[in-house]
Amino acid sequence: MPQRLTLADQTVVAIEALLAVLPSGAVLPCEDALAVRFAVSRVTVRKALTRLVARGMIGGGGRGKRRLVVGGAVGPGGRAGVRPTVVNWLSPVSEMELVWSTRVGFEVVRAVLGRKGYVVVFRHVPVLWGERPQRSLEALVAESEAAGWILYRATAVMQRWFEGRGLPSLVVGPCHEGVRLPAVLADVEALGRHAVAEAARRGHRHVGFVVDDPEVASASRTLEGLRGGSSGVRISVIRDDRTVAGLREALHGALRGEGRPTCLLVAEADAVLAVAGLVREAGMRVPEDVSLVVRDHEPFLSRCVPEFSRYQFDWQRFGRAVVQLLESVMGGGPGDGTQRVLMPEFIRGETLARAAVE
Description:
Layout: H1 7-19, H2 31-38, H3 42-54, E1 85-91, H4 100-115, E2 118-124, H5 134-143, E3 146-152, H6 156-165, E4 169-172, E5 183-186, H7 188-201, E6 206-211, H8 217-228, E7 234-239, H9 244-255, E8 263-266, H10 272-281, E9 291-294, E10 309-312, H11 315-330, E11 339-342, E12 345-347
Helix pairs in contact: 1-3, 2-3, 4-11, 7-8, 9-10
């Protein structure tokens, strides 16, 4: 397990990320502004700045004074005169919008790489998720002298672009068909097979998969697992458009009439409370009439009554696996589809019961 970073350590990492995107000679915000920005005390900011001054990354200054970004900074190994080695994490959503599990993995990656002298910069660049991101990718790579790239929820076009350029990059999650980039992923396909087997063992003959976008690689892999392990079990997709009205229409439509799903696998944890409420709104009970299983764990699930049946990943281990494989790729190691696949743990909970409809 990586050692926990102190608040001052975390502030150093955060300011390093800021320095990584500022040109030499730029002026840092004052201590008060940095304290507000990173939600820490001015004393903590001052400690962090003192360390960065000692490392030659910023010019010295007095209390509250602004400091200049120095062209020569300290990179891995403590060598003076080298800019910090930047690793870019590309995401279609902002850091604040990351689900809990991904945020934990990201923080482990940032902390462990930070201790090794790297600066992980979170880049929320929605234009890269358009139909033709090539020009934007060219511009981003040209202006960011990055040592490595982490691709989160990347499209097939993006993954193929990075593979074609031979850039040191790693995919968080599964690669799209035909892409052979290194990847660290939770085995959601095996999860799907296990989920449908658990449902079938309890007499369920129709499982609904509640998901916002079945085309995303993790969702499509989950579906492959559900269908691959569904001997005698019907699998249907229930689209969650991320609105209550849309989910209500889709879910009530699926639960109406004969042959309805008696077990629902909900992809995103933040949707399961809405799903449970809408099942009840449809005049059914959980789990007596409809069983619920959650694919992605978040801490609040263990404090719900009844406790939700769910799958839980070791995100600390996941983050460390990302660091190990990325370091190998950045050091010239294999970049030809090496994968680290981590298995989830099934938490039985109380929302998976025998089917009411045989």
